[in-house]
Amino acid sequence: MRFENIRFATNGPVAQITLARPAKLNAITAEMVAELHLAMDLAEADPDVRVIVLRGDGRAFCAGFDLDEVDDGASVDEVRTVLAADLDVIMRFWRSPKPTLSAVHGYALGGGFELALACDVTIAATDAVFGEPEPTFGSGIVALLLPWLTGPKAAKELLLFGTDRMGADRALDLGLVNALVERAALDDEVARMARRCALLDATAVRLTKRAVNRSYELMGLDAALDEALEIDVQIETTDTKESRAFLSIVQRDGVAAAVAWRQGRLATVSGQSGAPVSPGAA
Q1: Of 114, 157, 230, 236, which residue is the catalytic one?
Q2: What are phi and psi of 123, to 5 degrees?
Q3: Is 44 a catalytic site residue?
Q4: Within 10 A of 269 (CB to CB), how many other CB atoms are there?
Q5: What pTM did the predictor assign?
Q6: Helix, strand, coil % (nearest 5) of the chain?
Q7: CB crowding 238-255: b at 16 or more within 10 Å, else e
Q8: For 56-99, what is each residue's pLDDT tens digit?
Q9: Contact at 8 Å (CB) between 80 and 233?
Q10: Which of 134, 217, 230, 242 is catalytic?
């Protein structure tokens, strides 16, 4: 089966899905969303597949949703439809009846970070950089899994105080990744972990994953994600003087220039300086 934005392959009991837009740091497009659903359908329907591995091609795992696809003239309902589709593809990895494993190197930002969080286990290279830069861009969080995994203090720091570039060591400390390895060893470690999973009783694994996920459902995870999505719709469709100025700079000079403008504007107010480097997606 032909894919344009991802690669899909099976190797015995392991299905591998590779995000394959390396020139764009694997930024997620609507076409990629559709292909991810198709790949998950194939992996879940294959009785020989026992574990699903998600990875990224090139220099990064995934730098988030492709900002080039943002439609500034979309209606509220159109924005809601797009964001709901984005949330759905992320949560495919959380809700899949088969265990999911993400292999992260380089950037894992915004929607890419959320994809990694949605997987059952995450193995990261020491060069991995995690974060939710959406508030920097004036956007909301599509899949607000972070507070469920870190607790409110760390989540609010990462989301509300501009800590949107987090090294792999801190991600490990916060429990957002399961293990760190050198970049050169990432593929071997992921293969080893996938093989360990594949050797277990498939029915026991499937039902145990269901039991763990059900615990979060009973605590209100699904309702909270739906409510957060509605807030994201509000963020994306609220027009302010600041958002208009930011957007005009994006359209004229690009995302990096707009982020620099915002940081420079705030530096004037706060007396601080310095702007993070933006990979251009969220």
Answers
A1: 114
A2: -110, 130
A3: no
A4: 7
A5: 0.90
A6: 55, 15, 30
A7: eeeeeeeebbebbeeeeb
A8: 999 999 999 997 877 777 899 999 999 999 999 999 999 999 99
A9: yes
A10: 134
